Amino acid sequence: MAVKTLRLALSASGNCEMVDITDHVDSLLSDCSIQDGTVTIFVPGSTGGLTTIEYEPGLLRDFPAMFDRLIPKKMTYAHDQTWHDGNGHSHVRASLLGPSLTVPFLEKRMLLGTWQQIVFIDFDVRPRNRRLILQVVGD
Amino acid sequence: MAVKTLRLALSASGNCEMVDITDHVDSLLSDCSIQDGTVTIFVPGSTGGLTTIEYEPGLLRDFPAMFDRLIPKKMTYAHDQTWHDGNGHSHVRASLLGPSLTVPFLEKRMLLGTWQQIVFIDFDVRPRNRRLILQVVGD
Amino acid sequence: MAVKTLRLALSASGNCEMVDITDHVDSLLSDCSIQDGTVTIFVPGSTGGLTTIEYEPGLLRDFPAMFDRLIPKKMTYAHDQTWHDGNGHSHVRASLLGPSLTVPFLEKRMLLGTWQQIVFIDFDVRPRNRRLILQVVGD
User: Is B112 part of the contact surface with chain C (CB cutoff 8 Å)?
Assistant: First the structure.
């Protein structure tokens, strides 16, 4: 049994952009010595989140549209009144979705469904370089 | 320390049906050689999710009612306009709730609260056979 | 590799109070023999949840305001009609946010962002003493 810490760098444009990181995670796992276990993907920041989705053009519009409707950008946020960075909604969305996703893998392959991809969602309001953490625990 | 991959088969009728899987997970853990650790329950699909809830008849109505209100079935989803399977809302709900739940256990018993059960929620629009993955990591 | 089960006691006043538990978790990790791994923080109850957030006064108002708007206290919940404890909304909010958060750590320090804190959110309607579980798995 061992623990390995991997990092995944990506750039994202914000405003609910959904970045499919499945192949990146699979590729990092295949270079890692651990065969079976769990990989915890973690966003070390407060305006990004993680989930899985069928990565197809329709849902890339529907999922952000849900956030636009439920946690609108154009509302008054106490965060913005203090910090004036216009991303109060980004923080609230990210905290609701959550920064952490744990996925099981066997023989270095994640046990995802056929139509299921892992996505990083950048809720911030400007393009940023992001670095995600992958903590691999297993055998 | 070891990793064990278990599978849990169930059938679910969709439309936000909430299936209490607590006893199934406990039973799989009690047959497993690992005493203490974490079990990551994972939905390998994009129209189901996991959480915990007090599994009583009132909340079995209240929790789905929340999804019906916030992410209605009767809305236009870009997913449905392409695929015509009428489950755009199912995907959006599943991605918001999340496909993964990690629960600690000691002496083969999960450390749940007295009034806390683990539920699989089937957001799809038709009955399906489902298979969940349980990745057990521990000692 | 080892598993350690730690417990964190706290008191919370309910009604969406957000308790910053980052320093408590860090302190428990620094007293633990495991250097690198994951810590799964778990709420053994059905009216509390966990996430991360930038812990500043604005967001301490914005995040609860989102729940007040989307899952209002003043609605009819089937749970309350049976149990008359007035916390149907607390259960629904807790199940949506989720009871579990897994965070990677290295050299006993969690790999959080600079402006990212771990919060326990007490959705119940009265002050309570809470006990969270920290399952540490690693090397």
Answer: yes
Global pTM reads 0.98
Alpha helix positions (H), A43-99: 57-70, 78-83, 88-97
Residues on chain B touching C2 (C-beta within 8 angstroms): 1, 139
Beta-carbon contacts below 8 Å between A and B: 103
Q: What interface predicted TM-score (ipTM) does this complex get?
A: 0.97
At residue C42, the pLDDT reads 98
State the CB neighbour count (10 A cutoff) for residue A106: 15
Per-residue confidence (pLDDT) for residue B125, from 0 to 100: 97
**Structural domains for chain A:** 2-138 (2.60.120.460)
- CA–CA min distance C56, chain B (Å): 25
Q: For residue B108, give Cα distances in angstroms to A117, B24, B34, B139, C39.
A: 31, 13, 7, 10, 18
Cβ of C58 within 8 Å of Cβ of A42? The answer is no
On whether the CB atoms of residues A137 and B137 are closer than 8 A, the answer is yes
Q: Which residues in chain B are closer than 8 Å to A38, comparing Cβ atoms? A: 3, 40, 102, 135, 137
